Amino acid sequence: MNLPAITAPPAGAPPRPVLWKRVLDSRFMPPVFITLILLAGNLSFGILESYQKTLLAIVTAIVAEMALGRIFLGKWPHPSSAYITGISVGILLRSPAFWPFALCAALSITSKYAVRLRGRHLFNPSNFGICALLFLASESVAGLSIQWGNNFAALIVIWILGSLILWRAKRFQITATYVVSFFLLALLRAHITGDPWQSEVAPITGPMYQLFMFFMITDPKTTLKSRKGQCAVAVAVAVVEFLMRLDQSVYAPLYALFVVGPPALLIEMWIDARRKRRLAPVPQLRPEMAQ
């Protein structure tokens, strides 16, 4: 059997990507990571309604992404984003029926194309879909509220992997700012309510918060461009969540991002538009027009 000859790339051609760099493509790492969260959570604590419902959400999200991307953008989008959305819906949603999983996934993806301004969608897709169903179909659906229990092994592994991925994507500062803000506000909340501080801090160890911290508030398409702006939004989300939790809102982090995220993007777009107008060169009149 003759082996194919190994040839060097032609002069001036870009170097071929190393195999491990292709495997660690930034588009594939988040889907792998969220799959680890699903497996760790479900094998340890049974966080899923069922694998079938989660698979339905994933397939619906990918099909909707492919169809809408082709219709509105004229291309086939990469499925990694839709996969993350579908698996997030499968993990975070609770319902005895199948239809909420398909509807939530479809709403989530549709929001990317329907609620847009200047080429950017304003809501994190899964956050939009889940909040919409919690608002409109609360009699049929609920959100995930399971903790990891006393076994922190899975939690530590997820936090380490998530931190490394976010560091590589230059978004670690968002999650770090949110976590610090959450802990400080949890201590303040415990002081106000008189509850043990452990009970106020405990929710951040749950699967819902892992998805929220590592995927929703760090979504590249719906976060601000500047590091300071990203951190400011993370603090604002934590503060709104703090107020909602004082009002006994179970899904406070999801609602907080839903309320804070879009206005922050709109303000950034407005500031950018003003800056561009201010820096735009003033058109010069031709001599014959100035007379």
How does this structure look, described?
- The chain has 291 residues and is an all-alpha fold.
- The protein folds into 2 domains: 96 residues, no CATH class; 125 residues, no CATH class.
- It is built from 13 helices and 4 strands.
- A two-stranded antiparallel sheet has the order 1-4. Strands 2-3 form a two-stranded antiparallel ribbon.
- The longest helix has 28 residues.
Global morphology: globular
Question: How many strand units?
Answer: 4
Strand pairing plus helix content: what structural class?
mainly alpha
Largest sheet at a glance?
2 strands, antiparallel
Estimate the strand proportion: under 5%
> How are the strands of the largest sheet arranged?
1-4
Quote the average pLDDT.
Answer: 84
Order of helices and strands: HHHHEHEEHEHHHHHHH
In helices, the fraction of residues equals 55-70%
Count up the domains.
2
- Cα-atom radius of gyration: 22 Å
**Helical element count?**
13
Spans where pLDDT lies below 50 across 5 or more residues: 1-7, 17-24
Q: Between the first and last Cα atoms, what is the distance in angstroms?
A: 84 Å
List its salient traits.
two-stranded antiparallel sheet, two-stranded antiparallel ribbon, 2 domains, 13 helices, globular, single chain, 291 residues
Helix and strand topology:
Blueprint: H1 19-23, H2 29-45, H3 51-73, H4 80-92, E1 93-94, H5 99-114, E2 116-117, E3 120-121, H6 125-136, E4 142-143, H7 153-168, H8 172-193, H9 197-201, H10 207-216, H11 227-246, H12 252-279, H13 287-290
Antiparallel strand pairs: 1-4, 2-3
Helix pairs in contact: 2-4, 2-7, 2-10, 3-4, 3-5, 4-5, 4-6, 4-10, 5-6, 6-12, 8-11, 11-12
